[in-house]
Specification:
Length: 211
């Protein structure tokens, strides 16, 4: 019984709203009799199953209307159901929907985080949200040491995904460092792990220290 239940759940319909957002109408999936999906019916070829096998009672008004119209057309034409082929076609469309939805979700997260957070580097939604918070919103402070003839140490922080350096009594952005003080800031940042490198035209450079 448990094995039978898992087979039915495996082919549960992907949310049609998701399908609407990622697939054109020509690629949309049709109707599959999920309750008919039993071991003894895997290779069924014959008349289309009863409407109840399509779980029509759980459909909204619009979907039920479309289903009944489709079902009546099949019955009136004496169409034959090849259940194995229908399952394969349904699974292929489901995989396409999920793949395209995942790609859209990944692109959304990348664009909203200045391409600093990849959603699929996290295992769960919760860990992804924490990564976004840690990377784009959590203010961090580190020491940036100038490797020159001075022991000057500069603090750095990240605000809304942008790095700033405490330079002579004020926080300066990377752009301000370049335009005002001729410093070039090179940053490599991945999920909260930062490498900050500041270069001056005379050969000054820095490295990040968390001490």
């Amino acid at each position: 019984m448990l094995k039978q239940r898992r087979i039915s759940e495996l082919l549960t319909n992907v949310d049609e709203k998701t399908a609407e957002n990622v697939l054109p109408d020509s690629r949309r999936k049709g109707f599959l009799p999920h309750f008919f999906n039993k071991i003894e019916n895997q290779n069924y070829i014959g008349e289309y199953p009863a409407p109840q096998d399509y779980d029509m009672n759980s459909m909204n008004v619009e979907d039920r209307h479309d289903f009944l119209k489709w079902y009546k057309e099949k019955k009136s034409k004496g169409a034959i159901s090849d259940f194995a082929k229908e399952i394969e076609a349904c699974c292929r469309v489901d995989v396409t929907i999920l793949r395209k939805a995942c790609l859209k979700f990944r692109e959304l997260i990348l664009t909203q985080t200045n391409y600093e957070v990849d959603a699929f580097d996290s295992v769960t939604i919760a860990s992804m949200c924490m990564t976004i918070f840690r990377t784009c919103f959590l203010q961090e402070e580190h020491r940036v040491h100038l490797v020159t003839n001075t022991d000057l140490a500069l603090r750095t922080r990240w605000v809304n995904g942008h790095g700033e350096v405490w330079y002579f009594d004020r926080w300066l952005s990377q752009k301000d460092l370049l335009n005002t003080h001729n410093h070039v800031v090179e940053c490599k940042k991945h999920q909260g792990n930062e490498i900050v490198r500041v270069k001056k035209s005379l050969g000054w450079h820095t490295y990040l220290s968390d001490k």
